[in-house]
């Protein structure tokens, strides 16, 4: 459903992406891997129109959405969980969720469904966004994206800075989202945890795709981790 072809992007005169190719099919989980500063977040920003690409194409179901306004791209069924969570701190948990709700005849996600996935959010539903823990904020950011009823959920640094137990809870929830039929594109550093439910992996090095393959191929290629992922 998502096809990124030859994507290029820059910040001013500094080129960051040099022809990124990524494909995500319906119901598939694809990871975007690489060391810090290699262009992963820039790729996500360019896909969503938060940074206007300087070259290449972003296609959703074959339709060119390259460089469109972010809200128009989101209407094609893409939901973003941004780096740093970026929840609304002065709104309650429930207000954060309701603010992004987009219903249709085939909607899967509503308040009850999100609270079923993240019971902690129901317990904290009257707390403001700045009155909950970092892990709960990440759950809220995921729930907020799900409330748009996306067909593709994109997560930038899904578990960065979270305690191990919270990370495990996030991984379990992502696996549940996959089982519901949604596609996922996820950035994170925890390769082993990702490999439990991811189908394919794309490794970025200095703004270019350095390697791509299945989970089985990644497990069979320790040199890929040594060359492109280890610090």
UniProtKB/TrEMBL annotation:
Instruction: From the UniProt record, give one GO term of the biological process aspect.
Output: L-amino acid transport
> Gene3D superfamilies annotated for this entry?
P-loop containing nucleotide triphosphate hydrolases
The molecular function GO annotations come to: ATP binding; ATP hydrolysis activity; branched-chain amino acid transmembrane transporter activity
Q: Which UniProt keywords apply?
A: Amino-acid transport, ATP-binding, Nucleotide-binding, Transport
SMART domains in the record: AAA
* Transmembrane among keywords: no
- The reply on keyword Transport is yes
Q: What InterPro entries does the entry give? A: AAA+_ATPase, ABC_transporter-like_ATP-bd, ABC_transporter-like_CS, BCAA_Transport_ATP-bd_LivF, P-loop_NTPase
Domain ABC transporter, by residue range, is: 2-231
Family, according to the entry, reads as follows: Belongs to the ABC transporter superfamily.
Check the record and name the PANTHER family matching this protein.
ABC TRANSPORTER ATP-BINDING PROTEIN, HIGH-AFFINITY BRANCHED-CHAIN AMINO ACID TRANSPORT ATP-BINDING PROTEIN LIVF
Annotated protein name in UniProt: Branched-chain amino acid transport system ATP-binding protein
> Which organism encodes this protein?
Aurantimonas endophytica
The uppermost taxa in this organism's lineage are: Bacteria, Pseudomonadati, Pseudomonadota, Alphaproteobacteria, Hyphomicrobiales
